[in-house]
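Example (one chain per record):
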Amino acid sequence: MTLQVYLAGEIHSDWRNEIINGARDLDIAFSAPVTDHAASDDCGVAIMGPEEEDFWADHKGAKLNAIRTRRDIARADLVVVRFGERYRQWNAAFDAGYASALGKAIVVMHPPEHGHALKEVDAAALAVVEHPAQVVQILTYVLEGTLPR
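Predicted structure:
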């Protein structure tokens, strides 16, 4: 049976492709949020019409993105949540909390200096790593029971 993996969090680096390429020989179906930042921000006003205030434009976009995110997290067997170095990813923390509330297996990825700030998120995770290659190793172990060579 295909493992369903949702890749949540930071959208400013290539970490998702590193995991997808590293796991290409595994039976995994990946899903993710829209990673085109402009499209993600503008989806609400592009589909439902303009707003005079940025707050309401963002509100519309957040709600549309939540439809996709909720569906994909609900379908996932495993949720990988990446917190990047530069940006505060409130959405990543929310995704981790939502996944935890649904009882999903969570792998959190972040640099070591974020350990204190993310201690509650890390406590909900079944694994905490720093690099995409470690996520690939976890996926390989889960599906094949083998350790890295």
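Caption: Strands lie at 3-9, 28-31, 78-82, 105-109, 127-129.
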